[in-house]
Design goal:
The complex is a heterodimer of chains A (114) and B (116). With 114 residues, chain A is mostly beta strands. Chain A is 0% helix and 50% strand. Chain A contains no helices and 11 strands. In chain A, strand 4 and strand 5 form a beta hairpin. In chain B, strand 5 and strand 6 form a beta hairpin. In chain B, the strands form 3 sheets. In chain B, strands 2, 5, 6, 10, 11 and 12 form a 6-stranded mixed beta sheet that branches. A 4-stranded antiparallel beta sheet of chain B has the order 3-9-8-7, with no helix packed on it. In chain B, strands 1-4 form a two-stranded antiparallel sheet. Chain B has 116 residues and is an all-beta fold. The chains are: A mainly beta (114), B mainly beta (116). The interface between A and B is medium-sized, with 25 and 25 residues.
């Protein structure tokens, strides 16, 4: 597709289980970002990829969170041993990586931990 | 420190009224970029505009207009003759060149409700 694609759209998981969220960026975009938006909260940066490298992981909230990107394209955000406070919308975005270029967002993955 | 401040949490207007959303930013960079995004109830963040720090020209796009003033570090957004479809959360964001990653720092968002 033409836009940033994320899956699943919705995920309900039990506390303690692991979850994987997938992001397929716009074709040709070298920069990829993950953000989190909790209920009533703002948009929180998690991690940034340039190609397959992640030079900025500063936003990952704990070591239960990890992400990888392969082939300079698809990225997976993994949350291990999920907690209720992990419930949020996880938004993926991509850009061409050039300074100031527009960052386009996907529709998000709604995660609910019960 | 908060880089982007959107002082208005919620704004409610009647259709056809104008509404202005304030955004104040903070940066030490000379090169930076400012953005506005719209988040309708469906949840997707929709890009509205990008402005770089060297271009203070105001912009109008249909019913939307933006006023960028470096002297006051503000990048305000006006919706003229609002419509019910404008109801959404609007986010202002800053991207700083020195970071290299150009990641966005978002304001807290302003919820706009347009009543018929």
């Amino acid at each position: 597709g033409a836009g940033v694609s994320q899956s699943p759209s919705n995920k309900v998981t039990e506390k303690g289980k692991d979850v994987e969220l997938r992001c397929d960026p716009i074709s040709g975009h070298t920069a990829l970002y993950w953000y989190r938006q909790s209920l009533g909260q703002g948009l929180e940066f998690l991690i940034y990829f340039q190609g397959n490298s992640a030079p900025d992981k500063s936003g990952l909230p704990s070591d239960r969170f990890s992400a990888e990107r392969t082939g300079g394209s698809v990225s997976t955000l993994t949350i291990q041993r999920t907690q209720q406070e992990d419930s949020a919308v996880y938004l993926c975005a991509s850009s061409s990586g050039q300074g100031g270029n527009t960052i386009y967002f996907g529709e998000g993955s709604w995660l609910t931990v019960v | 420190a908060q880089k982007v401040t959107q002082a208005q949490t919620e704004i409610s207007v009647v259709e056809k009224e104008d509404v202005t959303l304030d955004c104040v930013y903070e940066t030490r960079d000379t090169t930076y970029y400012l953005f506005w995004y719209k988040q309708p109830p469906s949840g997707e963040l929709v890009f509205l505009i990008r402005r770089n720090s060297f271009d203070e020209q105001n912009e109008i796009s249909g019913r939307y207009s933006w006023n960028f003033q470096k002297s006051t570090s503000s990048f305000n957004f006006t919706i003229t003759a609002s419509q019910v479809v404008d109801s959404a959360v609007y986010f202002c964001a800053l991207s700083e060149a020195r970071r290299g990653d150009y990641k966005l720092s978002f304001g807290a968002g302003t919820t706009v409700t347009v009543r018929a």
